[in-house]
Amino acid sequence: MKTFELIAPCHFGLEAVLKKEVYDLGYEITQVEDGKVTFQGDAEAICRGNIFLRTTERVLLKVGKFHAETFEELFQGILALPWDAYIPKDGKFWITKATSIKSALFSPTDIQSVGKKAMAERLKKVYGLNWLPEDGDAYPVRVFLYKDEVTVALDTTGESLHKRGYRLLSGRAPLTETLAAALILLTPWKADRILVDPLCGSGTFPIEAAMIAANMAPGMNRHFLSERWTHLIDRSLWRDSFAEAREMARPDVDVDIQGYDIDGEMIMAARENARRAGVEEMIHLQRRAVCNLHHPKKYGFLITNPPYGERMEEKELLPGLYQEIGQAFSELDSWSMYLISAYEDTERYIGRKADKNRKIYNGMLKTYFYQFLGPKPPRRKKPAAAEGGECR
User: Fold this and answer.
1) What is the distance between the alpha carbons of residues 14 and 183, in angstroms, rounded to a whole number?
2) What is the pLDDT of residue 386?
3) How far apart, in whole angstroms, are the C-alpha atoms of residue 153 and residue 151?
4) For 298-318, what is each residue's pLDDT tens digit?
5) Would you tell me how many other CB atoms lie within 10 Å of the CB of residue 58?
6) Fewer CB within 10 A of the end CB, N or C, for the chain?
């Protein structure tokens, strides 16, 4: 089966999490760069990457790479790529996004226009047509320029992978599903440890944690653009990959995942989102203020995304809120807390310096993932061997 070079983009600062995901799926990683992981895989890898990867925004099929400092070089480079190997004569194609960093060519609209013309010229020549109907399936293309190196790729996903299909309602500053999953995977949390989000909003952290615990593939209940590319990906590969996802899911896993919010409407939204995700029985959601957060269990995890003060009217409330978070955390015996925020005085008002923090770009917004580490729980004793016979 033909092997492709596939590109999985992610949030800056979370490449290591995505790299492990790709590795765990069984694919060879060829390159890790800022904001993306490149790996090799066959047509089935396109299916499995889209269905199983939690922390990438999409799976891109690399068509080619070349150097270009002028629009003529860009045109000739895209013209030379084997578009007819991917796009049929009736395919609808366009450059859906162009980005440029530290390159001579920097206008996204001009890059898109020149690229489209080059693709059209190549396809008209190969198919012997004077014009292309473009009334068939969609083939969106993405172009990336970095230091005058141009990477061109087809988008196999369509709607971003953060759109799992369960979130109808969200809070004021929602965290994308892919970022929430990546942050959970950055922590040592496992399904046998309690997890609480005291500011859960529409429930993204608890829902993603439940899906991780139940081994539910994030894309198992949605569709992807390249399902229609039957000349590249046989339909049986999609059927088998979806079947694999269903077989691997363990929705009956025993977990203790909780979400609280002071806004009752947000709790209602979180419950509906959890129902749509198929994890409503795994999560306890309740209206509760941060100052009322208590828990008798030890060695739990707080994972949360508090307000950053992006709105001026909220900024004056942040010191009090972060003090409440810090006070509640200090009273939880042996717990750890993981908190993402762009608020510059986070540690000051939490009342403690983080043991670790990690810079992560949430879109264009620079945030920090603050990690306040509690002690590890004692190791469970192994059951004693039964008496009355030799162990073999």
Assistant:
1) 8
2) 42
3) 7
4) 999 999 999 887 665 578 889
5) 25
6) C
